[in-house]
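<instruction>
Derive structure tokens from the sequence
<data>
Labelled lines for chain and fold
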Amino acid sequence: MSSNFAEKTFTDPARIRNFCIIAHIDHGKSTLADRMLQLTGVVEERAMRAQYLDRMDIERERGITIKAQNVRLPWKVKDDDGVEQDYVMHLIDTPGHVDFTYEVSRALEACEGAVLLVDAAQGIEAQTLANLYLALEKDLTIIPVLNKIDLPAADPDKYAAEIAHIVGCEPEDVLRVSGKTGVGVAELLDEVVRQVPSPVGDSEAPARAMIFDSVYDTYRGVVTYVRVVDGKIVPREKIKMMSTGATHELLEVGIVSPEPKPTAGLGVGEVGYLITGVKDVRQSKVGDTVTTARGGATDPLTGYREPQPMVYSGLYPVDGSDYPDLRDALDKLQLNDAALTYEPETSVALGFGFRCGFLGLLHMEITRERLQREFGLDLISTSPNVVYRVVLEGGQEQIVTNPSYWPEGKSREIYEPIVKCTIIAPSEFIGSIMELCQSRRGELGGMDYLSETRVELRYTLPMAEIIFDFFDSLKSRTRGYASLDYEEAGEQLSDLVKVDILLQGEAVDAFSAIVHKDSAYTYGNKMATKLKELIPRQQFEVPIQAAIGSKIIARENIRAIRKDVLAKCYGGDISRKRKLLEKQKEGKKRMKTIGRVEVPQEAFVAALSSEASADKPKK
């Protein structure tokens, strides 16, 4: 198939189909996208590799998609008269993990249809339902597809009935494909052409294009990905960003197929990229509308809703001189990941750093890893925590994103964020899942049987309870069969306290935490025990205490290193030995009053990161 077709400009909108693939993590989205690339001929056989659209090393190592990737595919379909018609298809491969739902919601804005992919050996999972509801909210055409039908454990008939029950179609309407072997993929592309409506827009109106993604290129500056809604965008003309009013000259306009290819412009319904040579990353905001500087549109397109950070954590450079580099790195990464938020903060123990907001623990972990790999930074991240709203005795309100901002004195009311969780699991595990959720202060909201053997549980849980090891505990209790999805559900009144960790009477802000009153003792004990192992012994005894206000709830002692001052005494009078021991005792006492406990950097890393990595999702 000739690739010249893909490079033609201003394709007739009736010949365009914009669609994305949505599914739960590890249900084969990227593998199916690989087969589509091969089948349409945009990637040569010798250049093909698994997970072709996953460009980052982390994505390839972990086998998960983090960034939604768009690609333009040519396809031919015979019409009713048997004549082959050319079509242009824009495919967006989306992530499947709950932490990257924001990427999925942005991809859905650029499409008219969605392929709902379900593993024929596992059936519908929590994130499948969440993504399906997102697509239905946007009025997208849903094409239900069962993948991995070649697996020995596949049960297509059973799961086709399950999908049909949820989507509202007949079981025989559910397509059956294998992304691995390529069976049924051509038929799926034909169905996309038949079912997905073509984009609607006015080609004669002033240009309007929605920015749905952008990346930073060291040599070319900001590369902006857009979907054209009205008019056309051509190179060498001046464009305007409608939210900031900034104008730039377009140096290059092109399409991604699957490598960037410059074209003579983009028309209605087309998806492509723009390069203006701008190096300032704040000039290209995801969700902004691009129009022409002269005779441009006056009404911007409705943008995306701003993502709400769920988890906050401090990121600090190990070497303080790397602070400006960390700021630049976060600027560039935010361009690539619009869900990341950050603001500067300082810590007595860790120096200058940034308070970053993330959509979840995996998002936090991936961000830290990308900063370390792509920008060569050495970082410490503090314990993740959520945002609290504290009402003081005088009626003033205070928002707390960090334990060190916790107000002194008595608080009248403390509110914590809560989330609605959907857990889908085999029915045999209902008891252990309920036990886990109740131990995390959860309230059961409802329970439905999707089939005879699979059940959906809906719980309301405090956000703080699920950001640590909830996912791990859920997987271990259900032998890996349960799937979890959650969304914000407001806030609730709670009995919370701030636990301080004191070293020789001085609070170390990096180790403080806000916890529920019932689990304060457990946290204090655990932290004191951990620090006893991590902090090296000093010349004097060091008490490690956990305290709520002025009340001590846990204590451990680091014993002093004792020099043998009697080594030089062999024989002689006992009073001489006693004199030396008294002298040593006086020295230790003086050292204890003026000595400072040096906490090595490794102790901070070990004490804080061991908790941050507790929620690594398992496949």
